[in-house]
Design a protein that fits this description.
This protein is an alpha+beta fold. It contains three helices and 17 strands.
């Protein structure tokens, strides 16, 4: 089988980077082939270049941080003695100013290299914070640097510093910060890193919140089991919430959105204002919400999904459906202009009892 090899040199420049506060909401750049959904790609220590014992917990914590914060179906990492991928403690990096370096070979493996403590580089001497009992200012957090390298393994590139995005939106800065500058010891992907991982790998589940670095349009549709009923007859109204199919991000198009708040609203025909009838419970079908109604009057119905305050989804409103309710007077039942006898409508009398007793008595509107 031909191996598609994608190499990404994750060069961490150790010059001070400016943490501007300008344009936000730009997902971290990325490129190259992706791993399979939730592919487990474990690592071992490189033979002859094993990380020292004081460094290993930070590396393993970085893998756990990637798994916990990816919020997507990106790759999963963990230490495994016999793994094909490896992490090494070595100066074998093709520059003399980088503290970390990553190479990935999708779909099979990757390598991560971390410089040894005390290595003399073009800019000075490398100090890992984990080496010390009381880390001094100016040291580099090995957990953050390793997480950054795992970001490259996941296909993330470096952010464009010229955009001046808030520093904590991403851990993929080419110039990492040292203790004790803001962001020096971040232990999870930033929101714009998560946004790109969701774009490339889809959200972890339909219930997973979308990163606030996104602004995805949504589509809400509405259906009823019947749109013409006798007064008090039960009707199930269901709404389906999805990411809009025409979204810029192809892998997210038509993705179901579960476990959000969808509101069912109603109005009298010809009225202009809507009132909230109920919050529609989520069903076992991904992206589906449903409410049972027992109307005694004809209403227009719609579903409403409001833009969440802490999620990268836009709000949407369904099309309107009308559930016509028949009324019976002197043995004649009318739904709008159409009238039939009570017997034809399946009504035994005018007291509200259906001819088919298996359906039970009528229910009051609520």
């Amino acid at each position: 089988m031909n191996r598609r090899r994608t190499i990404l040199a994750a060069i961490l420049l150790v010059t001070a980077a400016l943490g501007g506060q300008a344009s936000a909401d730009t997902p971290t750049p990325a490129g190259g082939a992706t791993w399979a959904p939730n592919q487990q790609v474990n690592y071992r220590w490189k033979a002859g270049a094993e990380p020292p014992n004081w460094l290993r917990p930070a590396i393993n914590a970085a893998a756990a941080g990637s798994n916990a914060s990816k919020a997507s179906q990106a790759a999963i990492f963990a230490y495994e003695a016999g793994a094909q991928s490896w992490i090494g403690y070595t100066a074998d990096i093709p520059t003399n100013y980088a503290v970390g370096y990553a190479v990935r070979h999708v779909p099979d493996s990757y390598n991560i290299r971390l410089r040894p403590h005390g290595h003399v580089l073009d800019w000075g001497t490398l100090r890992w914070c984990q080496f010390y009992d009381n880390p001094p200012n100016g040291c580099y957090d090995a957990e953050l640097i390793t997480l950054h390298e795992f970001g490259h393994v996941q296909t993330l590139g470096h952010v464009d510093e010229s955009l001046g995005e808030p520093w904590l939106d991403s851990i993929m800065h080419a110039g990492p910060r040292t203790k004790a500058k803001i962001g020096w010891n971040e232990d999870e992907f930033g929101r714009c890193d998560v946004a790109r991982l969701q774009i490339r790998y889809r959200a972890l589940t339909p219930s997973t919140p979308y990163s606030t670095c996104l602004a995805l349009p949504t589509t809400l549709t509405l259906a009823a089991t019947s749109t013409s009923v006798a007064a008090g007859q039960s009707v199930t109204i269901s709404a389906t919430l999805k990411v809009t199919g025409s979204t810029t991000y192809a892998k997210l198009a038509d993705e179901p959105i579960s476990d959000r708040q969808v509101t069912l609203q109603r109005r009298l025909p010809g009225a202009s204002s809507w009132t909230t009838h109920a919050h529609m419970p989520a069903t076992s079908i991904e992206g589906r919400y449903a409410s049972v109604i027992s109307p005694t009057t004809t209403y227009d119905w719609r579903a409403l999904f409001s833009k969440p305050a802490n999620e990268g989804l836009n709000g949407s409103t369904s099309a309107v459906i009308r559930v016509n309710v028949s009324s019976c007077v002197d043995g004649v039942c009318c739904t709008g202009p159409i009238c039939v006898t009570a017997a034809e409508a399946g009504i035994s009398d005018q007291t509200g009892t259906k001819t088919d007793e298996s359906e039970g008595p009528w229910q009051a509107d609520y």
